């Protein structure tokens, strides 16, 4: 069988991303499982933590995640199906989780835990079980980076996908990320495979959690991952995006070309709004030109271009006129 080359250094042109859940991998050799998922082209590792209380099953905890952290460069998404995430949060953060998602149905206080995750610089997620309405997320709107929608009852891999739940929730879930100009994510978890990927892609999902579909004997995992990503992108293009191909997540576009002081000012303002910016010497000016006089390109993720335009178009035009950068009124008010 042909091996696929390691894909972590090749920027994916896909919009949709696959997070490999290791729940159905060989739990006796998880190090192998995460290395394999990386080699076969998964974008993330999805770690299902269960406490035998919130769900009728037990898996692993922060210590196992910490041990696995050394085995792969892929980002870790922890999905905590536990009643008391607050009690263990410091350990999960210390273990190196890049995002931590907790459940909206738990009885303990959710807000401090979300704040704790974000204070550690990680993405904070809230997950809803199939019967939980999205309105359960309402009080936490401004505190979440991820909405995870379960399309099976949590607890076990290999269950049948609930299409009704997907249709009722996935598109609407985006509304709870309206505060994020860049980087908010909808995850779908449960029953995702080549049969269901197109549907959820068509509902705008960013991250497809895939468990049992990847770990079947004699299955080419790399092909399965590529197929699921491609189907999700097709669904997006012909479902939501009027036939226009999706914007790859890694694509950057030039948002403005400005002299250095103005470029730095705009960068600061755009980054303060949550959109990452790269500054490069513009190719529009000759290579030997002095850095102080030459213009610089501000690059932003293409996926955030519309939001950036809506917010900074006027500011960009004012700075381009070469006015000395002054502090915009909103910042001045805060200072
Ligand atoms: C279920 C877990 C899922 C599970 C998905 O409680 O949250 O992440 O691994 O497995 P599949 O893809 O088999 O439904
Ligand atoms: Zn999960």
Please summarize what this structure is.
This protein is of the alpha/beta class. It has helices at 30-39, 62-69, 85-94, 111-119, 163-173, 197-201, 221-239, 260-272, 305-320, 329-334, and strands at 17-21, 44-50, 76-81, 99-103, 123-128, 146-150, 185-189, 207-210, 252-259, 278-281, 295-301.
Main traits of this protein?
disordered N terminus; binds zinc ion; 11 strands; alpha/beta; binds D-xylitol-5-phosphate; 335 residues
Radius of gyration: 21 Å
| Distance between the first and last residues' Cα | 62 Å
Give the tally of β-strands: 11
Class from secondary-structure proportions = alpha/beta
Supply the number of helical segments.
Answer: 10
- Order of strands, widest sheet: 1-2-3-4-5-6-7-8
Average pLDDT reading = 93
Order of helices and strands: EHEHEHEHEEHEHEHEHEEHH
Largest sheet: 8 strands, parallel, barrel
The low-confidence runs, each spanning 5 or more residues with pLDDT under 50, are 1-8, 329-335
Query: How much helicity do the residues have?
Result: 25-40%
Shape: globular
* Percent of residues in beta strands: 15-25%
What ligand molecules are bound, each kind once?
D-xylitol-5-phosphate, zinc ion
**Assembly category:** single chain
Task: Provide an overview of this structure.
The protein is an alpha/beta fold and 335 residues long. It is built from ten helices and eleven strands. The strands form two sheets. The chain has an eight-stranded parallel beta barrel, surrounded by six helices. Strands 9-11-10 form a three-stranded antiparallel sheet. The longest helix has 19 residues, at 221-239.
């Amino acid at each position: 069988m042909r091996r696929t080359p390691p894909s972590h250094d090749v920027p994916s042109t896909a919009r949709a991303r696959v997070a490999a859940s290791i729940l159905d991998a060989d739990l006796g050799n998880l190090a192998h499982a995460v290395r394999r998922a990386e080699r076969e082209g998964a974008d993330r590792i999805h770690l299902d933590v269960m406490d035998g209380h919130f769900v009728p099953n037990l898996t692993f905890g922060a210590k196992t995640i910490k041990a696995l952290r050394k085995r792969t460069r892929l980002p870790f998404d922890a999905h905590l199906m536990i009643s008391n995430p607050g009690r263990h949060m410091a350990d999960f953060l210390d273990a190196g989780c890049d995002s931590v998602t907790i459940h909206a149905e738990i009885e303990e206080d959710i807000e401090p835990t979300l704040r704790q995750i974000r204070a550690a610089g990680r993405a904070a997620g809230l997950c809803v079980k199939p019967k939980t309405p999205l309105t359960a997320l309402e009080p936490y709107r401004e505190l979440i980076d991820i909405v995870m929608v379960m399309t099976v009852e949590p607890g076990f891999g290999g269950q049948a996908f609930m299409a009704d739940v997907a249709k009722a929730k996935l598109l609407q879930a985006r509304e709870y990320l309206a505060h994020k100009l860049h980087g908010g994510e909808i995850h779908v978890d449960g029953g995702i495979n080549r049969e269901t990927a197109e549907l959820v892609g068509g509902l705008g999902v960013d991250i497809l959690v895939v468990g049992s579909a990847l770990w079947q004997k004699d299955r080419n995992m790399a092909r399965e991952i590529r197929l699921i990503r491609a189907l999700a992108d097709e669904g997006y293009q012909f479902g939501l995006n009027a036939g226009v191909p999706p914007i790859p997540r890694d694509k950057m576009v030039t948002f403005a070309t400005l002299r250095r002081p103005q470029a730095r000012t705009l960068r600061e303002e755009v980054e303060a709004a949550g959109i990452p910016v790269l500054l490069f010497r513009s190719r529009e000016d000759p290579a030997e030109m002095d850095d102080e006089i030459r213009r610089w390109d501000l690059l932003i993720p293409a996926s955030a271009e519309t939001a950036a335009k809506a917010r900074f178009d006027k500011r960009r035009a004012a700075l381009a006129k070469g006015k000395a950068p002054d502090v915009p009124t909103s910042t001045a008010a805060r200072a």
